[in-house]
Design goal:
The chain is α/β, with parallel strands linked by helices and about 230 residues long. Helices cover about 20% and strands about 25% of the residues. Bound molecules: nickel (II) ion and manganese (II) ion.
Length: about 230
């Protein structure tokens, strides 16, 4: 059993007996975050899907506070190390066993700018994270692509964290198609309502996912579920 906490936008904490991992910690500048970065609790690792500010967010501050390890694409990880923070660089397609669980980087189709240091760019990724025998797929910011379908074909995903905001990522129609490709045990929508341009009716998305025969749970910032 593991616990999923939602903190708004694409930020989640996954807690298990193997540790506490935060993904895409965009808190301080997120108008809908329920918690300040310094109050997010013990963190062992920070998974960063790409270099945009709404995902890299408070990575450095949280890493310093908890001596947590940043897990990200090589370019982002190297930059973090240059700032004195422990980091583990990976690249798309690669997997690694960490004390807190198994992580694989999968392709995401999105932008590459590293906003904390525009001299750097990197490939955006999604994360497969296996812990307590459960597989979580955090899609990051991505379009619906054939790669997404392949991830679904090759893996039995228990929990899918899928962007539905549209404009910068998949919208609800493509996210529903992603759910049909991946057939997860449960889908939780993310990357919506933070800004006007990504406002969505998540309840309507849930209704459509359920109508298609899949399970969906909409979390408000601050809510948790066990999986
Ligand atoms: Ni982005
Ligand atoms: Mn984003």
């Amino acid at each position: 059993m593991a616990t999923l906490e939602y903190h708004g936008h694409s930020c989640f904490v996954i807690e298990s007996t193997h540790g506490r991992v935060i993904l895409d910690p965009f808190l301080k500048d997120n108008p809908r975050a329920d918690v300040a970065p310094e109050n997010v609790g013990q963190v062992d690792a920070i998974l960063v899907s790409h270099g945009h500010a709404d995902h890299f967010g408070d990575t450095l501050a949280i890493a310093r506070q908890h001596r947590a390890t940043v897990v990200a694409a090589y370019e982002i990880a190297s930059w973090c190390e240059s700032k004195g923070v422990a980091a583990h660089g990976m690249a798309t397609g690669g997997a690694h066993d960490f004390p807190f669980g198994w992580v694989k980087l999968v392709p995401a189709a999105h932008g590459s700018l590293f906003e904390a240091d525009p001299a750097f760019s990197t490939n955006p990724v999604g994360f497969l994270y296996r812990v307590e025998g459960k597989l979580v797929y955090h899609m990051g910011d991505t379009a619906l692509t054939a790669d997404v379908r392949l991830v679904g074909e090759l893996n039995r995903v228990d929990l899918l964290l899928a962007p539905i905001g549209d404009n910068y990522t998949m919208g609800p129609d493509d996210a529903l198609k992603a759910v049909e490709f991946i057939r997860p045990g449960l889908v939780v929508p993310m990357h919506f309502d933070t800004f006007d341009v990504i406002r969505q009716d998540a309840g309507e998305f849930q209704r459509r996912v359920e109508e298609a025969g899949h399970r969906c749970h909409v979390l408000a910032p601050g809510e948790t579920l066990e999986f």
